[in-house]
C-alpha cells in the first residue's frame, strides 16, 4: 500500500461486487466495514446489518464503523437490487422498492458520509451505477432510472464538495458474474455476450480494481466521472 490505512465503508459488502470491493481494500491494508441486509462480511472486515433505504439504519452503520475504525474516509454505495419487468407490468411498488434501495440508499450513504468528510477536508464517495443507467435496458425502467440518478448525485456532489478535497464518482459495471445476474435466462446472457466487445462477462474483482483506483491518492483530481467497467458494452457514455 502506498498510502496510510483508511477507514472505509462499503454497502452491500456481503456478496458479489461489494464483497470483492471489501476484499480488495482489505488486501491493501485498509480498515473496512461492510454493511448489508444480512450483516455478513469477509473475514477481516467489520460486518454491520443495515438497510440502506432507512436513513437511521445508515446512520447507525456509520456510527459502528466510526467506533471501530475512525471517521469514514471512503464510502462506497454499492448495495442494489433489481425488480425487472416490462413497464405495463411494473407496479408502483416495484418502482419504489428499487428506487428506495438503489437511489435513496445512495443518497443516505452520501449524506451521512459527507458530514465527517467535510470536517476532515478529505473524502472519496464512490457510487456503483450500471451500464444500463445511460444505455437503457428493456424491463429495467426502475433500475435504469435509479442508476442514471446516481450520475446526477455524483456530479452535484462534485460541485458542492469539490472545493473541500472530496471527490464523488460513479463506477458503471456492465454484465458482471454475480448472484444478481445468475438468475437471468440463458438466452439473455448469450445475447449480452454477443453485444459485449470483450465477448465475456466481467468478474467482481475487475469492478473492485476500478473502485480501489478511484479511492486511491492517485485519483485525487478525478471527480464527477462515470468509469465504465463493461468490456466496451456501453461506449459513448
Ligand atoms: P448481489 O445481489 O450479488 O449483492 C447485493 C448486495 O447488496 C448484497 O450484499 C445485499 O445484502 C445488499 N443489499 C441489498 N439490498 C440492501 C439494502 N436495502 N440495504 C443494505 N444492503 C442491501 O449484487 P451485485 O454484487 O451483482 O451488485 C452490486 C451492485 O452492482 C448493485 O448496485 C448492482 O446494481 C450493481 N451492478 C451489478 C451488475 C452485475 O452485472 N452484477 C452490473 C451493473 C451494476 P445481503 O447479502 O445481506 O442480501
TrEMBL record:
Positions of the Ketoreductase domain: 6-179
What InterPro entries does its record include? KR_dom, NAD(P)-bd_dom_sf, SDR_fam
Q: Which GO terms describe its molecular function?
A: oxidoreductase activity, acting on the CH-OH group of donors, NAD or NADP as acceptor; quinone binding
Q: Biological process GO terms, please?
A: fatty acid biosynthetic process
Pfam families for this protein: adh_short_C2
Q: Which UniProt keywords apply?
A: Oxidoreductase
Q: Which PANTHER family match?
A: 3-OXOACYL-[ACYL-CARRIER-PROTEIN] REDUCTASE, SHORT-CHAIN DEHYDROGENASES/REDUCTASES FAMILY MEMBER
What does the sequence similarity comment in the record state about its family?
Belongs to the short-chain dehydrogenases/reductases (SDR) family.
Its protein name is SDR family oxidoreductase
What species is given as this protein's source? Propioniciclava sinopodophylli
